[in-house]
Amino acid sequence: MKMTKQEFLISCELPAPTLELYLEQQWIIPEQTSAGVTFCEMDLARVHLIQDLRVNIGANDEGIDIILHLIDQVHGLRYALAQVQKKP
Length: 88
Known about the structure:
Elements: H1 5-12, H2 16-24, E1 31-33, E2 36-38, H3 41-57, H4 61-86
Antiparallel strand pairs: 1-2
């Protein structure tokens, strides 16, 4: 499901300045279309993860940078491994 910026802010109950910080930090990278920026369910899940890291774990911005980078690397490696396993 694609969402506009306003729909996304409502869905994740996030203040606009906080979303701007997440975009500036490139923690969330929405899709750019001819109609403008759109957000997806993956972006929503990532906001929830960031909020959990901040509130429940107490991670600061630098820590969130590192954690998200490591998570992205793990997902990339899992995808690459799955592709290798599919080859005959």
